[in-house]
Write a structure and sequence with these properties.
The complex is a heterodimer.
Chain A: E1 3-7, E2 10-13, E3 19-26, E4 32-39, E5 43-52, E6 55-58, E7 64-70, E8 73-78, E9 87-94, E10 108-110, E11 114-118
Parallel strand pairs in A: 2-11
Antiparallel strand pairs in A: 1-3, 3-8, 4-5, 4-9, 5-6, 7-8, 9-10, 9-11
Chain B: E1 4-7, E2 10-14, E3 19-25, E4 30-38, E5 44-51, E6 56-59, E7 62-67, E8 72-77, E9 86-94, E10 105-106, E11 110-115
Parallel strand pairs in B: 2-11
Antiparallel strand pairs in B: 1-3, 3-8, 4-5, 4-9, 6-7, 7-8, 9-10, 9-11
The chains are: A mainly beta, B mainly beta.
């Protein structure tokens, strides 16, 4: 069966410090991978998605970046955190659809999330 | 740009009641719609997925309906229990004609409390 892990679960970082959140998926290959942020009162916001190794698309401009060094590894990073980066970060994956039209139609699976507090 | 709205934002009802959560979306060009449950401080768990060609899906005490043309979905919870207390999120998946990911657009959720 497929599983998704993300860590750390909780972290408190000072403004201006770097960030690295890691997510790995097991039990599947070539998944679509996502990073979402859930800020208080704002709902879930898609930050990045990836359809393959080294392929990253950004949905919103920000000081965060994402990388996919391996097929089932997705990393969210920042060189200098801002107070506004505080929130609940969720990694997710879905099975990609290979064919035309190109959409998966499958459900999306979420990790347990990472609480980031920037102080 | 797709926008998803959920009403009410919060709901508190006594145990045993049947209840309805509402979700509306502005762009009817969706491939499917999902309902999720989120417990405090946790990730999301998928409850029901309705394809755009379907009208409803059922799982146990949960029933979700979809009216794509009017941009609406409802989640019906029968015989509510305290364990149903959580935040319920609705999300729509867009139709794409080319390559790309299938990221979802989420509503802000309905915070549900079932009183024992």
């Amino acid at each position: 069966s497929q599983t998704i892990h993300q860590w750390p679960a909780t972290l408190v970082q000072p403004v201006g410090s770097p960030l690295s959140l890691e997510c790995t998926v097991e039990g599947t290959s070539n998944p679509n991978l996502y990073w979402y942020r859930q800020a208080a009162g704002r709902g879930l916001q898609l930050l990045f998605y990836s359809v393959g190794i080294g392929q990253i698309s950004s949905e919103v401009p920000q000081n965060l970046s994402a990388s996919r060094p391996q097929d089932r590894q997705f990393i969210l990073s920042s060189k200098k955190l801002l107070l506004s980066d505080s929130g609940f970060y969720l990694c997710a994956w879905s099975v990609p659809f290979r064919g035309f039209p190109i959409f998966s139609g499958n459900t999306i699976y979420f990790g347990e999330g990472s609480w980031l507090t920037v102080v | 740009k797709q926008e998803v709205t959920q009403i009410p934002a919060a709901l508190s009802v006594p145990e045993g009641e049947n209840l309805v959560l509402n979700c509306s979306f502005t762009d009817s060009a969706i491939y499917n719609l999902q309902w999720f449950r989120q417990d405090p401080g946790k990730g999301l768990t998928s409850l029901l997925l309705i394809q755009s060609s379907q009208r409803e899906q059922t799982s146990g005490r949960l029933n979700a309906s979809l009216d794509k043309s009017s941009g609406r979905s409802t989640l019906y919870i029968a015989a509510s229990q305290p364990g149903d207390s959580a935040t319920y999120l609705c999300a729509v998946r867009p139709e794409y004609s080319g390559g790309g990911a299938d990221g979802l657009t989420f509503g802000k959720g309905t915070h549900l409390i079932i009183q024992p």
